[in-house]
Amino acid sequence: MKILVVEDEQRVAQFIQKGLKEEGHAVDVAHDGEEGEYLGEINEYDLIILDVMLPKKNGFEVCRELRERGVGSPVLMLTARDAVEDKVRGLDAGADDYLTKPFAFEELLARVRALLRRASESKSPILKIADLELDPMSRRVTRAGQPIRLTTKEYALLEYMMRNPGQVLSRTRIGEHVWDMNFDPESNVIDVYVSHLRNKVDKGFEPPLIHTLRGQGYMLTDEAPPA
Ligand code: CA
User: Fold this and answer.
1) Which of 8, 106, 112, 191 has its CB surrounded by the most CB atoms within 10 Å?
2) Cα(213) to centroid of ligand 1, in Å?
3) Is there a contact between 68 and 90 (Cβ–Cβ < 8 Å)?
């Protein structure tokens, strides 16, 4: 999943970013309210973790303005200790949940999982292309009923491709969604991961689902890809 963290305290931001990356998420970090609002609007995040006390624009304003512009990403607010008023204001501004600082990473992770689960339940429960199935809730992947073991990054890449079947996915687009905004589209990391994925998902099965479109990128489809 793709997550935006809006937090001005470097250490907290890095701690959250590192932990979420280890869980296989793509994480962008914004260091003030304006940058957070900008990134939240131009990118499609599966979740936004938004601190309340931010330079330039506070978390309430950022959340309210994102909602006004139709951004529906779930928002988890990080509020100051015991500030009941903050919680109410956050929810009023359109946040989905809040977490009081300081918090243990496990607690953050539990909230993140719950919000992502809620969001993916409201999308489609199980993703299917031909006989390939991916369950975002359990993260279970099968092809023709056989379980396929994927690393967290391979899983994230496959989920992204399965959410966008039949579409040309350029390396830049994949990089932005599955890696993060600092991803270098010139690197061959994506090609390496696609090749791993192909070995696990397509090898020994028919028809092939992962297609390379020369000079354009990749496409997941069970039909013949465009020449
Ligand atoms: Ca802060």
Assistant:
1) 112
2) 44
3) no
CA–centroid distance, residue 53 to ligand 1 (Å): 4
Q: Ligand 1 centroid vs 54 CA: distance in angstroms?
A: 5
Q: What pTM value is reported for the model? A: 0.67
Between CA 163 and CA 10 the distance in angstroms is 33
Q: Taking the CB of residue 106, how many other CB atoms lie within 10 A of it?
A: 8
Q: How far is the CA of 40 from the centre of ligand 1 (A)?
A: 17
Residues with a beta carbon under 5 angstroms from ion ligand 1: 8, 51, 53
**What are the backbone angles phi and psi of residue 212, rounded to the nearest 5°?**
-100, 130
Q: pLDDT by residue (tens digit) across 82-99? A: 667 777 787 888 899 999
CA of residue 36 to ligand 1 center, whole Å: 12
Which regions of the chain are under pLDDT 70?
81-83, 123-124, 227
* CA 61–ligand 1 middle distance (angstroms): 14
Q: How far is the CA of 31 from the centre of ligand 1 (A)?
A: 9
